[in-house]
Each structure stands twice: as structure tokens, then as C-alpha cells.
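Figure-free illustration: sequence to structure, shown twice.
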Amino acid sequence: MVDVRSADGERGAPAAGGPARGDLAQGRAVPEGRYGRSGGGPGRDARTDRRLKIVGLVLGVLSLAGIGWFGADYIGGQPVSAQVIKFEVVSGRTVEVHLEVRKDAEAKGVCTLRARAADGGEVGRKDVTVAGGSDQVDRVVSLRTTRRATSAELLGCEPRETEGH
């Protein structure tokens, strides 16, 4: 209950026109017409909610379509792409990396591999040339390191122009 005092300091009932806290807590409705209307009569709020849901759905679908289009364009626009299938630390100075490269059959490219030590420092790097002739190339590449490596990663691939062009 709200503590309301009159001008002379007496406690009394809540001010005229104001609902007591207990009224709202007990689920009693506020007086009709006191706080204005949402405008337009019955059913107006339901129509507005439906319109907002439809607008939200359309914007969501358009956003997802845009993200998908940009993603497909980015992936499809790369003439040479690759991934490390697995790697194996063979010795304290060598890592073998299984590299899978996807490209156009006539495309050539260079992929850069890097080996890292336990502290995160780079201990080896190698550029691997991928020739034309096939649209997918699987290679196991031996990467020499300056000290023991704990991981190997692909930094990226770039297309290379063919000789004579």
C-alpha cells in the first residue's frame, strides 16, 4: 500500500484518482478511459501487431538472403581455395601437412602454410605452388621448422597467372 500523508501529516488513503499498489498487484483493471486509447477501437492493436510481425519477417528473410548472397559470392569468387585436412609433427624440425586445394582446372595458385610452436611463435613457413590440370589437388607437404612445432595452419591461397600471359 502506498503511504500517503495529507498536508497536516496525517496518514490517509491514496490520493483521489490514483490506484493503490495493491489494486494492480491483485490484477484489477485500471479504470476505463483513464489512460487514453491506443486509437481506432477494438481489433486495432491486433492488426498493428500482425503488420509489425509481417514487416519483421520480411526484413529477416531479406537479411538472410543478403548474407547468403554475399557469402556465396565471396566463396565462389575465390579462384583458389584450400584447407588443411590434418598435420603431423614428424620430428623436432619437421611437420607434414595434408593440404586439399580446390580451384578451376586451368588455374594455378600459391598457398602459404605456417607452423607454430607451443608459445604461439612462428617456427616455419612455406609457399606451396599448385599447378593447373585438376580442379582438386591433395598434397602432403613437408614443412621444415626452426624448433618443435605444435600446430600447422593455412594462411591463405592466391591465384597465379600462367606463364606467357
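We now fold a second protein in the same way, so the two outputs can be compared directly.
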Amino acid sequence: MTTTLIRHAELAVVWDATAGRHAYMPGADVAWRDGVLSFVGRGYEGMADEVIDGRGMLVMPGLVNIHSHPTSEPMNKGLLDEIGSPGLYNSSLYEFMPIFRSDAEAIPDCVRVALSELLLSGVTTLADLSMAHPGWLDLLAEAGMRVCIAPMFKSARWFTKNGHVVEYEWDEKAGEKAMQEAFTLIERAEQHPSGLLFGMACPAQIDTCAPELLRDSRAEARARGISWQIHAAQSVVEFHEITRRHGFTPVQWLHEMGLLDERAIIGHGIFLDDHPSTPWHTKRDLGILAETGTTVAHCPTVFARRGITMKDFGRYKRAGVKLGVGTDTYPHNMLDEMRLVAYMARTQATDPRTMTTTDVFEAATIGGAQALGRDDIGRLAVGCRADIVVVDATHPRMQPAHDPVRSLIYAAGDRAVKDVYVNGRKVVGDGEVLTMDFRAAALHLAEAQKRIVGRATQQDWAHRPVDKITPPTFKWL
């Protein structure tokens, strides 16, 4: 075992155990041994096998991303940027996303592109919500990132035949079989030689899962001591479907079944009973989320593209709702996502004081860690994992640096991220991914997209040309 030391960091975001929150520490020393932080403070006097000069550097904990779809979303770049189904309340879930879905050949490059973008933006722990695919675990381990695999399973698939009605094709036995396979895959992940993989139960969507599948998956997750995540309150279509089936809002239906608690995560949680787009006769949803300790995985970018947003992050926070941040879509840039969290909240609240940078940084670190049941990530403290982001505080886009974390989130973004360590291993060096060939994966993905686009018209219910489905920015001459 060797000891690595970052000596005299210009500034470090360290964990203040007394206050229970992050704090700035100038001139900090940060040391780790065997993937674990052994010293965080000033005046380190121990031995070190490698010493890194921390002058001009901001050292902070790795970011924790609790909601992402690496196998599919990179494929949609340039295609789904500004389209949503007008007959389905501007969601793109039901009509457009399925026709541009990645095929098996494209998935590895999709994953490599997404994970590279995540590492470059300071993510060291990721929740990967994907349908199981061959070689998944080894592909994730290749990145050197800490990953919570969440193999999605469901009882039905959704589709539309006309662009304004969503239908469901049910196969409950297939859903049960997929759930069992998911738990087996989680066991394999936890035994993976990389030591970086763990698992989470993930029934895909509230409207595609039979009640028995939801109850059984929740019970199994509790028995195994793992987190449980579901997409819910993510579209107006889904809100109306659940109220039609059960007479409850999505949040209330999950609560009625006893599925919500401090290890439950709701992906998105936008359309509550008091959202302007889904007014209901109750006003209970926000309180239920807070009282049960449920975490909401907030991913604003994909919804902002459709003119949809949470009302608002600050309101949820003040109500006592636990919050985490995810990159549901491309670009898989966590710092960009955090910036948009803040800007969307303030515009929706018409109040710059609705939330603070502290709030969003906590959501992207300890909020995500708690949701995944981890107390050893998301903070720089002795005994925690050595998941560290080193930012070049002298970067021109970081200047002036009156408050470096604000400069990072609101101005510099991933351009100032210099080095990233996961479990003490350097996976990004001088702004380049060291574990995967990002550029090659991106080029391969570009070729794959041509193949996917070439058959999109046949996948579309109306057999429209691609340029009609997603009109180009300018006319092609």
C-alpha cells in the first residue's frame, strides 16, 4: 500500500463533522492510502510515497450522480434537442425516444461516451439505470468509476399508434422474470473484482409495473439493504394514467402501497398534485415525500428541452424533501446540470433566494450518497473513500475566484476539472480520461447514429421522414 498526498491545496472543500456540512479550508493537506482518506486537514506530518503540489488547486469530493441512462441517451444528441409530442403534453418519452433507441452494437460506445463525459465533469459515483446488456459490468469497471447498477425491469411496454394516446402491452410474467434476473445481476456486481460496483432495485416506471412487481421489488430491496428507484411523476400522461387506474396521484399511490422511505428514490418527481399542469383535489404529495424521507432525483435538462420543469427545487428543499441530482440525458455533464438546477429553480420561483449553491452542491454529493445508502462517499473526511476532484483554480474561466465553487458551477464548468481520482486511482489526468478512449467512442457513436437514423422512419408510427420528425436547424443545400 502506498500513501498519496496533496500538499497545501489552495482550497479544499472538506467535511465539517461538527456542523454536518461542507466547509472551505485553505492550505489543506489531503492524503489517502489503499483507496481511503487517511488525513484531511492542515500540517500533515506522515510519510507519503507520492506528493502532489496543491498550489493553485481546488480539491473537492467527487460528485454523486443518482440518475443516468448511459446505454441510450448519447445516441439522441442532435435528434431530440427540441422535439416533444404536442398531443402528449410535450413529452418525448412515448413517440420519439423509442424510434432512436440504441441497438446492441452501439451500446458500448454509448456507455463509453457517457461515462467519459461524467468523469470529466467530476462524477466519481454513478447510478446507471439501464436495461441489462451483455458485458455491462466489465464495461462499467473499465471506466474506473464507482457505479451503482440499476437493471430496469417492467411488466409492460408503452407505445402510441397516433401521437396522442399512450397504450400499454402487458406481460407480467416477463416482468417477474426480469426482476429476478436483475437481482442476480446485482449480486454479480457486488462480487465484481473491481470492487467498485454495487446495486439498486429499479422497477422502470410506475405506469409500466404491476402493483405486485412494485411490492415484491421493494420487499426484496429492503431485505437486501439496497436502495430502490422508480420513474414517477415524470409526465402529465403518467399522472393522468395513474389517477385513472387508482384514484391516487403517482406519489400517493406509491405511498398507499408502503413503498416510500429513506431508501426510496423517485426519478424526477415533477408532477405533484399541486403542479400547475396537474392540479388535483389534494395537496399532499410534497408532504408525503418529506415525511417518508424519499429522495427525488432531479434532472432538469431533459425536461427543460420540452418546456417542463419542477416547481421548484428550493420549494422542495424548504419542505424537507431530500434531493439528489442526475444527468438523465446528454450531455452527461454534472456541472452543467447543477448550474441548470439553480437557474431553473430561481426562474420558476421568480426569486434568486429560493435556493443556494450550497443546496445544489449538497444534493450532488451527500444527498446522492445518502440516497444510495453510502456514508463513505460524497465528502472529504478521514475514513471515506478517496473519490476526489482536483480543479485548476488558476484556469482563466475560474477567475476571478472570490468563491471558487460558484466560479466552477456557474462559469468554468468541466473545462477547469484537471484530475479525478476514484478509490485513490487517477482516472482523469490533465483534463483527459485515462481509462477509456473517449474520442474513438464518440467517432464510433457518430457512425452508429447514422445507422439508427436510417431506420427511424420504419420505427415511427406514422412513417415520417427523419427531417420531418426532427427538422434540421437550417435547410440542407
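Summary for the second example: The chain has 15 helices and 20 strands.
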